[in-house]
Specification:
Length: 222
């Protein structure tokens, strides 16, 4: 089955006159089309947004009055109904890792919240460390931690040093390095520091789950 997702952004600005609404999606066109404009901008944002929406199979339009404007766009959504007994949740159950405790070492809170959502069906408990020093402390004080997802670029203590310290405390604790910089040599540096695997951002859920499955299954924590 297919359906449509609709998004909108609403403001309470000066609005757009009805005779101007037809061309605001044109390239380099703005309502205040003079050399001494009150508002900045290049006049290409709406044009690019509209084209992207159309490339995705959707559309974009505006509703406006003197009290503000609402910009809408849609994208098609394909609904897939999976048969019983399929999907990531069942893969996790069969591997008996759906009740593990994962430590996420990540200094960016929004990235942590994203990973928490990604892992909510994988880990029964999720702990957060906002820097490498906290990650080491958590691993020392929480023996129930089964796996660490380690960001490499963090304040106070980076992921490489934190991994080395954790491995001295708990040599068999699996650590997956994560970094926003998919630079040649990052994987090798992570493994040399003691990480058991490596994943680059943006993180894909299936790839991460597969790596966790691989490390947890058959693990013998000291």
């Amino acid at each position: 089955r297919s359906t449509e997702l609709k998004f909108f952004v609403k403001d309470t600005g000066i609005g757009i006159p009805s005779d101007k609404q037809e061309f605001i999606f044109d390239v380099f066109r703005q309502i205040e089309d003079t050399h001494t404009r009150t508002y900045g901008g290049t006049g290409i944002g709406l044009s690019i947004s509209k084209r992207l929406a159309e490339l995705l199979g959707g559309r974009m339009w505006v509703d406006s009055d003197p009290n503000g404007s609402s910009f809408y766009f849609t994208i098609p959504l394909e609904l897939i109904v999976e048969p019983a007994g399929s999907g990531i949740k069942d893969e996790l159950s069969s591997a008996s890792i759906a009740d593990i405790t994962i430590l996420i070492a990540e200094d960016d809170e929004s990235s942590f919240e994203f990973l928490k959502v990604v892992l909510k069906k994988t880990a029964q408990f999720i702990l957060w460390a906002s820097n490498g020093e906290e990650a080491v402390s958590h691993c020392k004080n929480h023996p129930e931690i089964d796996l660490v997802l380690m960001d490499i670029n963090m304040p106070v203590m980076n992921g490489y040093d934190a991994t080395k310290a954790i491995k001295e405390l708990r040599p068999n604790l699996p650590i997956i390095a994560q970094t926003a910089y998919a630079i040649a040599g990052d994987r090798e540096k992570s493994l040399a520091a003691g990480c058991d695997d490596y994943i680059s951002k943006p993180i894909k859920r299936k790839e991460l789950i597969d790596k966790i499955n691989k490390l947890i299954t058959g693990k013998s924590e000291a």
